[in-house]
Model the fold of this input.
Amino acid sequence: MTADHTHDHAHSHEHGSELSDLQLRVRALETILTEKGYVDPAALDQIVEACETKIGPHNGARIVARAWADPDFKARLLKDASEAANSLGYVSPVGAHLIALENTPLTHHMVVCTLCSCYPWEVLGLPPVWYKSAPYRSRAVIDPKGVLAEFGVTLPADTEIRVWDSTAETRFLVLPMRPPGTDGWSEERLAELVTRDSMVGTGIAKAPAEVAA
Amino acid sequence: MSNTVHDMGGMHGFGPIEVEPNEPPFHEDWEGRVLAMQRAMGFTGIWTIDGGRASLETLPPVTYLAATYYQRWFLGLERRVVSHGLVGADELAAGQALRPGIGLNRKLTVADLPRAMNRGHFERPAQTLARFKEGDLVRARNINPETHTRLPRYARGKLGTIEAIRGCHVYPDTAAIGAGDDPQWLYTVVFTGRELWGEEADPKVKVSIEAFEPYLDPA
Done:
């Protein structure tokens, strides 16, 4: 049996009511890989746990809040985001080539991966389904304004929209604009205003009125 | 492959973006197992990240589009363990190992975590001087390889500007086919919306790609 043959068999069984068949096949593959000594199920458990509990946009939000509160940190972040993020210590180590993109009244940055699903996991967690799906991947580069409108974001007419297609191993973190009315706020309070979408560029940070006082 | 359905930038007809409020990391338990197996097998070094991408891109287009994200990952992983000789198709059919495994360079253990959750390093020492500098005009080459590439179709043949030099990195086009790292300079190249999509395009839009030096000609 060739790999393609296996695949064709797979395809005929993977729709609708046959989903349980896929679950069984995933379990079977894990059994085989374990029996053959390629994977350790305990290590797999920990990877799943890390994805569910440790990584997530709360890490990126702390970086953004620090940048809003501390001009020196912001300068460092824009110069070398990997170095700046790692300097905080509390974020899981960020690989090389994280690049921070500062949104301003003149330029709004938005990130996509048209070819697959490249995303800055260390600071934002696993990408949401929409980020990995055809509607976003196809339209973000040709109609970013329309995409932003679907997310409820309308920008001033003279704001330039800059789309970053993640076609290599560089990763992008958008630094959203700090909302007005937040002078003197602690980093902890500021972080509550930072949404996942605002760090992908499909959203803006929350206004103070949107979070509980 | 290069001109396959994964290269979606600029396509129409996929409908509205569906956002799920408070989306969980995984919708089904098996999705987490697939991600974890993918990570653990990647850790063994038997294939590269681009080899993994290529195995998804070469799924039949109908399968690629109909499958959910983790279904796609699973189908790619199944193909890869067979094509690399790690698992026999007979074993997949039997749902159990029928022979001992082959020796791999390393195996992910609990002790390797959380370090193994970090992204790999793809920058390599430069072999040559960078051909381009910031501000240079470049034209993305009109290449159509049948093997993996990271130059999206919508940028091919288009005129752009070098905005930044990102260092020298593993070249996906060779790494994906087992032809080595062949490190290449990587650039951020920015295009106007009108260059990419024509005169009707929004003049306030710019799009950048991360382009390896072999994707670019001086303009």
